[in-house]
Write a structure and sequence with these properties.
Blueprint (H helix, E strand, L loop, with lengths): L8 E5 L2 E5 L3 H11 L2 H9 L5 H11 L7 H11 L1 H15 L4
Antiparallel strand pairs: 1-2
Helix pairs in contact: 1-3, 3-5
Amino acid sequence: MANRLRGEVALSLGGQERRLRPTFARLVAAEAEIGSLYALIDRTVTGDVRLAEIAALFWHCLDGEGADRAAFGEEMLAAGMAKLLPAYRALLSAAFASE
């Protein structure tokens, strides 16, 4: 179960709940693949976000081991963008939240 106090986001895929946890190391790995997360936010605001960017961010923030990236991508595709976008927004908010 996702713990919002730790910045975790729940994502239901394939009949199971996945936990996305944006740790510093995971965000750095995502940035290495997709570029600046600040630029990603700018593109999101203008509606220019790409499925590949969402998939990469989710993959790098996925909590747990043993997952197959291709299978994870297929689960995301099956879920559809309408289900992914709220989790995507929540993950970006958690990543850039300050206390």
